[in-house]
Design goal:
The complex is a heterodimer. By secondary structure, chain A is of the alpha/beta class. Chain B folds into four domains: 153 residues, Reverse transcriptase/Diguanylate cyclase domain (Alpha-Beta Plaits, 2-Layer Sandwich); 41 residues, no CATH class; 122 residues, Dna Ligase, domain 1; 117 residues, no CATH class. In chain B, helix 11 packs antiparallel against helix 12 and helix 12 runs parallel beside helix 13. The radius of gyration of chain B is 33 Å and the shape is elongated. Classes of the chains: A alpha/beta, B alpha+beta. Chains A and B meet through helix 1, helix 3, helix 4, strand 5 and helix 5 of A and helix 13, strand 13, strand 15, strand 17 and strand 20 of B.
Chain lengths: 282, 526
């Protein structure tokens, strides 16, 4: 076999190997959230093929944590891949089912969502291990309620290894509990943040999160107010309605901001984070 | 077609010296003998005799009350066991079984050997068995009820049954009594009358039964299990008990089955594995697949998942001597060739994963949502098992640049909350949910959602044509109207002092539908 043919064969082999790689060889190892400060901390974005945890510190914050997780799912899959969403029965009884109409509002296509109604945390974790073990889904989301004993370091290590092998991103949505030891790549504590101040009749109610990155294996931690843009499917620094009182108020920009817009200084973007009042929840 | 029928009596043979046993049941408010053993029969007792009479004749009787449920269970267990001889087993009344042995007898060395293979193990367990083989089910039943072990060659049913009493036909007892009163005691007597006479007196059904008994007509039996499309089975001379061998056997059978289906371009949607234990017990394990199984490895993996997840594990006891794999439901499949691009068969991969998970958890736990065209929020999304296929129906689009109008988490049932509003039909200012008071900072609403009045069925007395109603039922007929189902809802989005966002509604229109509002929490926004 002459040299040229060997080179060509090697190139073809490389192309086949790329096609056969779990993510088709086209996806970046990290996916940016759109929030520049957070992306800088994360070294470019959320790592694929790893385990990430999102905590709702109190039961009242469950919906906010769900929304933040849904945003991460949307960023990672871009509606191109299927999502396995596993929830134990208790979370449906307490905070309700994941509503598909709500997913549509946040930009995730329900046709791509498959829900597993697990009876308990053990069943949920086993389904999660199955989902992470094969390269079928883009993201596997596992809800766990409260401080569950079955999700210990061994279980989280298993899921981490499975995610690394298959390249599937694993998201643990930990409802109504505070962080504990695990092998997750990143760990977030998410609370709801106020809608930006504006006139009484100005539109409000875009998802706004007070996201605290409390663990980051490859960079600094931080705390940001993040605003989920339901139209561009990006996390963004919070925006103010800059219109003076009396003018027609539109807190939403008329032209949608693009992803690579230069970073806006000021506001809540980096340092000035309002500390939400902690609340006891019965 | 050859039919075999084995009948067995409820009682078991008992040693000579023990007292005679009768089984009694309350019929028309009177205890009557429904069944008895040989000892009791020798004393002159007969079935259908009142217990009081029997007691007067023989005070020392062992009386057992009939347990119809246990009898049915026993008969079903025997029928399960009989599945190993033929897939077509049907129940006949409370104490008989029909086995369609067409094309099966040669596997057991002929009809006589097959009859022995069935009757001997049963007799050894103490059942009084009586069996007969004939060309039609009715003829076989008549033979088995008169004597044990008769085998009628094809075409000679009429000669075999003409001397049997009419009661062996298995028709209603009133018909038997009427025939006896008319002086027609044997089947031959009845057959000698003209068909017209018999039909005029006893109906066409009886004539049909008679024709079947004489072998002039035939009707298929209705088997207990649906007849599988493809079957593969493995018999073991030595019973197997280890799960390793069992799984390897399943794999081998699956390969045979898939090979047979492939030749016809079929794939299995439903597979059942039957495990026959040496002690006669039978265990059936079924798997369902959303995507037709065309690969032995897939079938094996589904069975492994299912067997792993069984609540009561597969108990081999003394071992299985027969394992059978059957494709109960098959569909035509077209083989497709995929390119190198792994993304091309993503949907197929998802379906395979869903099948595997459903085999373990049950299909109702793996859900996919379909949009449903209604304004009522809790009915707008239909949860269907993902195994039934992923929907491709488009969901209603959101309104661009608007904040979300529907919550991300919808409570299973709306929860009552206490709301303070500034004026009765004004927006909420404060509410108490799950024993916690929350002050509302912002609200938006109301968004009025009226219930679907066109689906209601007014409670007016119906005087329509019943038959017409039955054929054309009114659309969306509802039997019960739940409280609040008809009341208009006014939904508000609300944000409290902590930035938490809620979806709450009040029920009814003030002073038109309700005198005072009731408020509910229905969902949570992100």
């Amino acid at each position: 076999m002459d040299g040229a043919r060997t080179v060509k064969l090697a190139a073809l082999r490389g192309a086949v190997a790329r096609l056969e790689k779990p993510d088709g060889g086209q996806l970046e190892p990290r996916v940016g959230l759109g929030h520049h400060a957070a992306d800088a901390s994360l070294q470019g974005g959320l790592a694929r093929g790893a385990l990430h945890e999102v905590f709702a510190p109190q039961e009242a914050q469950n919906a906010a944590a769900t929304g933040f997780t849904l945003g991460l799912v949307r960023r990672v899959t871009a509606n191109a891949r299927y999502v396995l969403w596993i929830r134990p029965d208790v979370s449906a009884w307490r905070t309700g089912e994941l509503a598909m109409s709500g997913c549509v509002e946040l930009g995730l296509d329900p046709r791509r969502i498959i829900i597993v109604r697990a009876a308990n945390a053990d069943m949920a974790l086993r389904a999660a291990a199955d989902g992470l073990a094969c390269n079928v889904f883009g993201v596997v989301v596992t809800e766990l309620w409260g401080a569950t004993r079955s999700f210990d370091t061994v279980a989280s290590r298993k899921l981490t290894l499975a995610a690394q092998t298959s390249g599937v991103t694993g998201l643990m949505l930990r409802l109504a509990t505070s962080p504990s030891v695990s092998t997750a790549e990143t760990r977030w504590i998410v609370r709801a943040a106020h809608s930006p101040p504006g006139l009484v009749w100005s539109p409000w109610g875009m998802p706004v999160f007070d996201a605290e990155l409390v663990r980051n294996r490859h960079g600094p931690t931080g705390r940001w107010i993040m605003h989920w843009n339901c139209d561009d499917h990006l996390f963004q620094p919070q925006q103010f309605s800059a219109e003076p009182a009396g003018q027609p108020a539109h807190s939403q920009p008329v032209v949608s901001p693009s992803a690579n817009r230069p970073h806006q200084a000021g506001g809540f973007a980096t340092g000035a984070v309002r500390q939400p009042r902690r609340q006891k929840y019965a | 077609m050859r039919q075999a029928r084995s009948g067995n009596q409820d009682g078991r043979n008992t040693p000579e010296e023990s007292e005679p046993i009768v089984i009694v049941a309350k019929i028309n408010n009177e205890l009557k003998i429904v069944s008895l053993d040989d000892g009791a029969a020798r004393l002159g007792l007969v079935e259908d005799m009142p217990l009081a009479t029997a007691r007067a004749m023989h005070p020392a009787l062992c009386i057992v009350e009939r347990d119809a449920e246990a009898d049915a269970r026993t008969l079903n267990a025997i029928a399960d066991w009989c599945d190993r001889f033929t897939p077509l087993v049907a129940l006949d009344g409370g104490s008989g079984l029909f086995l369609d042995i067409s094309g099966c007898a040669h596997l057991f060395g002929g009809e006589a050997c097959l009859m022995q293979a069935i009757c001997r193990p049963l007799a050894r367990q103490g059942f009084a068995v009586s069996a007969g083989i004939a060309g039609t089910a009715v003829a076989a039943r008549a033979l088995a009820q008169s004597a044990h072990g008769r085998i009628v060659p094809p075409g000679q049913e009429a000669d075999a049954v003409i001397n049997l009493p009419v009661a062996t036909l298995g028709v209603d007892s009133s018909v038997v009594t009427a025939l006896r009163r008319a002086g027609l005691r044997s089947i031959g007597d009845v057959a000698s009358r003209s068909r017209g006479e018999i039909t005029a007196r006893f109906g066409a059904d009886f004539t049909e039964v008679l024709r079947q008994a004489l072998g002039q007509s035939d009707a298929p039996i209705s088997p207990r299990q649906p007849l599988p499309d493809y079957v593969a089975e493995q018999r073991f001379a030595d019973p197997v008990a280890t799960s390793d061998v069992i799984l390897r056997t399943l794999r081998k059978l699956a390969e045979v089955l898939v090979g047979a289906m492939e030749r016809h371009g079929k794939g299995a949607r439903q597979l059942t594995a039957s495990f026959f234990r040496t002690d006669g017990a039978m265990r059936l394990i079924a798997i369902e697949a959303g995507q037709a199984v065309t690969d032995a490895a897939v079938a094996e993996r589904l069975f492994v998942e299912r067997i792993d997840a069984l609540a009561d594990p597969l108990d081999p006891g003394f071992g299985f001597d027969l394992i059978r794999l059957a494709a109960v439901q098959t569909v035509a499949v077209t083989s497709a060739q995929y390119g190198f691009d792994t993304r091309a068969h993503e949907a197929a991969d998802v379906a395979a994963f869903v099948d595997r998970l459903s085999a373990r958890l049950g299909s109702r736990r793996i859900i996919h949502y379909q949009p449903h065209d209604t304004h009522i929020p809790e009915r707008a999304e239909l949860a269907v098992p993902a195994q039934h296929g992923l929907s491709t129906m488009a969901w209603p689009q959101r309104i661009a640049a608007e904040p979300p109008r529907r919550p991300l988490r919808l409570l299973l049932t709306p929860e009552r909350i206490d709301v303070t509003a500034q004026f009765p039909h004004g927006p909420p200012a404060m509410f108490k949910w799950r024993q916690l008071a929350r002050r509302i900072v912002r609200t938006e609403g109301p968004e009025r959602i009226a219930m679907e009045w066109w689906r209601w069925q007014e409670q007016v007395p119906e005087d329509g044509d019943d038959e017409f109603e039955e054929l054309h039922p009114p659309q969306g007929r509802r039997d019960a109207v739940i409280d609040g189902e008809r009341l208009t809802r006014d939904y508000f989005r609300a944000e409290d002092g902590d930035g938490l966002r809620y979806w709450i509604y009040r029920e009814g229109i003030y002073l038109r539908e309700v005198p005072a509002f009731r408020w509910f929490m229905h969902g949570l926004f992100a």
